[in-house]
Fold:
Amino acid sequence: MSHTAQVIIGDRGRLVLPASVRSELGLVPGTRMLLTVEEDDSLRLRPYQTVAQQNRGLFANRGPQWRADTGDRGSLVDELLQDRRDEAEREE
Structure:
């Protein structure tokens, strides 16, 4: 699936994607897109849904971090809650 098409930037910076591209990608009015300016000054336009699917599970294998002070792996949420409890006790 490779397309090359000439497009023109219109009034107010609008860009119209050719119907063949919209059809092939299943793009409909209201589809959210992510526009990235690449290092070579080219533009990359991707549907948000595609980006989300590609990144799904990106951090799935990240477990709790090793805590040197306790010698175990703890939850950051548990640590935050404990900090809040300690702070509340000091305020009393």
